[in-house]
Amino acid sequence: MMLFPRLVGGEPALRSAAIVGLAVGCALVLDTATASAGAATASLACPPVLAVDVRADKHPGWSVYSNHPLRLTGADIAYVSDEESTLDPDETKQPDDRDLSVIALFHLRRHPELKDASLVCHYGEHAQLSRVLPPGITECAVTRHRQFDENTESEFEATCR
Asked: Could you point out which of 3, 5, 35, 44 has its C-alpha 20 to 30 Å from the C-alpha of 72?
């Protein structure tokens, strides 16, 4: 189950970039910082945009009209069981903010059965990045800003800490 699926649907530039073909080169950010007690804590976040390079020389006779990056359109926590599965959020919050945000929270300590849990970042219908959650990650949040402007980098944010 992908949280907030197909929200890019009406944006032709993003959809055409995904359909024409992707040459994707991007990595998830793994940030390790030192906590005040001296212990290391890890965090993981989906990149807000996925770089897209549609090359005209790879499509002779075609005109390229979009090289816009793909924006994050949702995220899941995937894990291995008898088959590949995704985790449902443990709680959903709606903070009173100007972006009309909705936050889906995953409390990973409540799920000791999780094996090889990964953060899966979705970019439209045809591209995704995933990375196994590093040891020490206890919570993930997927935020959707239902109202955003040019100062908001992305409609979605997905972070784990």
From this structure: 35
